[in-house]
Amino acid sequence: MQADIVFTGGTVRTGAAESPVRDALAVTGGRISALGAQALAARGRGTVVVDLQGGALLPAFGDGHVHPVMGGLGLLGVPVRECTSVEGIVDAVGRWAEEHPEAEWITGDGFDAWLAPGGRFDARRLDAAVPDRPVVLRTMDHHTAWVNSEALRRAGFTAATPDPDGGEIVRREGSTEPLGTLREFGAVLPVFDLVPQPSHEVQVDALRETAVRFAASGVTWVQDAWVEPHHADVWITAATSGPGLPVRADLGFFLGPEHWREQLPRLTAERERVEGAAPGLLTAHTVKFFADGVIESGTAALVEPYTDCAHSHGIANWAPAELAQAVTAIDALGFQPHIHALGDGGVRAALDAIEAAARANGPRDRRPVIAHAQLIDPADLPRFAELGVIANLQPLWAQPDRLMTDLILPKIGPERGARQYQIAALLGSGARLAFGSDWPVTDHEPLRGIATAVTRQTPDGIPEGGWLPQERIDTATALAAYSAGCAYQAFEEERWGVLRPGMWADLVHLAADPVETAPRDLAHLPVLGTWLAGRRTHGSGTPVTVPTAAR
């Protein structure tokens, strides 16, 4: 049969155990139809031949944990992500406010939590730039907000306001007066709930912009790991109107501890609506939980106390028994649990909840996910494999950057610090592994995460030999975590994730073979093209028609 597209002129890395490397690949009707010599023989009149130019064709990447709608909207406010100091943020806020006198609220997203000592940001610094309108800025991890005094006033936060459940209002030294730093959702959301929502059209445009960015980095599937009710409509509109979307997605409905039982009928109805609206492009089989917060803010749940606060074990967003009941309930409805857990206490609570669900509901192919798993107690590490839990890790975090050295390590000490992001140990235990970016928390480009997983170094090559080098993995394994691992998480390993005949032609063309590329160069390896089921979604390489002699 004549192929629609034939890729040749480079290395085809199939990602499959059998015949892992080939020299050509053919696509017919959006699916891979042949490899190697059979692919070359499938060229005919009208076949588009894509010259790989000495580069490599691989399974396209997935992203197993990302926030496309929220991240896209975060690009619209004050551009604080690139600011390198508190002074720089204040200047950016002042400029943006001056340029947007019509904005009732001033928001920004993605600055580094370590820019202020101890991650403590003062409202008075923002007051100096904007005293008369509320300012709300989120740190890169989205678990901390820096607000000005007007935002505190509108939220009703005063010296007499107690810390809300699941949150902390950071106080001034020697006082109960709010400083201007809010930690965790119990304290952050009362402010963000006051911010006017962008229109539906603005949110759709933001999602489309995000999807284009992901396609340009070689991604064809994403797990939206925090879907609020109105986000489903955004996804449906983006997928079914205009140019559509260059990525597939699974929507993970957020479920919090408040009134969760009453929300279960809505979740099942939304699943049916989403999957009926855009079959083949959107699924909605996931429910997202937050077991805890983040270590840098002292809000991740720990088994033993924080070293810099002997009375604190962090913040558990759910009582363990209640989390187990909620996970059991959504598991019984056929949803896949996806649980944010960073501290070893949070990871243990998540594992306990998954174990309780399996015990109550019996065997099934549930593929539960624990996202981040920054710190795992040694007794709990083998439980990932035992319970069939997918560890969805963010490899870009496995480096000694300033977040790690300035905020995280002082809070947990050397012993716990030396068992973070145990990528190799989890794989060695038999656990399933999938990678994600958690964008906009950190960069969305898989090749940057792959480079870090292989080197365990900062972009500057620090430290020599890698940070916790026993947890490094090789390039092929890291590539698989971003392709086959994500396909398994998506329940779609029979459709994409490796390159074999019959699979969807979800492909990425890189300028060089990543397995043969020096690890330090992986982060900068150009993505020349991306295809979703044989449809080019990124790149403008010039295809050629088949020469007469080859027809």
3D structure, described in words:
By secondary structure, this protein is of the alpha/beta class. Helices cover 32% and strands 22% of the residues. Strands 1, 2, 3, 4, 5, 19, 20, 21 and 22 form a nine-stranded mixed sheet that branches. The chain has an eight-stranded parallel sheet with strand order 6-12-13-14-15-16-17-18. Strands 7-8-9-11-10 form a five-stranded mixed sheet, with helices on both faces. A hairpin with a 7-residue loop joins strand 1 and strand 2. Helix 3 packs parallel to helix 4. The longest helix has 18 residues. It is globular. The chain starts with a strand and ends in a 6-residue tail after the last strand. The C terminus is likely disordered.
Unreliable sequence segments: 542-551
* Shape verdict: globular
Mean pLDDT: 95
Strand coverage percent: 15-25%
Please describe the biggest sheet, giving its number of strands, its sense, and whether it closes into a barrel: 9 strands, mixed
Using only C-alpha atoms, the radius of gyration works out to 24 Å
Total strands: the figure is 22
Structural classification: alpha/beta
